[in-house]
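ok, trying the design again with the full structure, not the truncated one.
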């Protein structure tokens, strides 16, 4: 659902390309719908930003970035059960994005994010040791361990972007990174193969995510 809405200048937005894809319409028809909306020019300028995108052939084509109000106005004209389902999905996506934006302005979010950075730094230091450890064991791609473990922690915590995560998601991510930190340190001390260390981390994180009901939040 998160791909329906994205952040642009600290505002939740979608665009005409996404609307065309999700409502199974031709993009040129969506552009036409926007241009023919019976709204004031002031409303149009505030809620429909005309811009361009590069198509598969490398040519620039017109598109619109659309605010929540703009989407609501545009979607009024789309009928049918499938359209109704996509309207609901968009509303949920806008609500989720705007909720996170409100939360980001709180001191609690700022403090949680800062604490998360400290946890991430400690994890990164441990992963640096793992990189060297894996090299000693013959790995030729040990530098990729950073992104491998980052993706694992993010997936288990249900986080796509740290700067757009809720306080709960940030706390879950810190928990996952702390587990990785200790599991890697322990694995190195025990002399395990670096691939087995990853398997152990993945299994532990999956168990924790299951017990904490994080899977349903991802």
């Amino acid at each position: 659902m998160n791909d329906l809405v994205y952040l642009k200048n600290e505002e939740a937005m979608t665009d005409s390309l996404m609307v065309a894809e999700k409502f199974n319409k031709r993009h040129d028809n969506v552009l036409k719908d926007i241009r023919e909306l019976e709204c004031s020019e002031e409303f149009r300028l505030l809620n429909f930003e005309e811009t361009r995108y590069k198509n598969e052939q490398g040519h620039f084509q017109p598109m619109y970035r659309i605010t929540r109000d703009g989407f609501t106005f545009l979607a009024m004209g789309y009928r049918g059960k499938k359209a109704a389902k996509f309207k609901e999905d968009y509303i949920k996506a806008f609500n989720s994005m705007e909720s996170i934006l409100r939360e980001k302005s709180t001191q609690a979010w700022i403090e949680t994010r800062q604490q998360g950075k400290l946890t991430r730094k400690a994890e990164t230091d441990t992963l640096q040791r793992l990189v060297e450890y894996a090299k000693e064991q013959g790995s030729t791609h040990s530098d990729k361990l950073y992104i491998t473990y980052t993706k694992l922690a993010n997936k288990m915590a249900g986080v796509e972007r740290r700067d757009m995560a809720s306080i709960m998601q940030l706390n879950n991510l810190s928990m996952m990174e702390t587990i990785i930190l200790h599991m890697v340190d322990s694995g190195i001390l025990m002399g395990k193969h670096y691939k087995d260390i990853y398997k152990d981390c993945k299994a532990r994180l999956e168990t924790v995510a299951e017990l904490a009901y994080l899977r349903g939040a991802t």
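Keeping the full-length input from now on. The longest strand covers residues 48-54.
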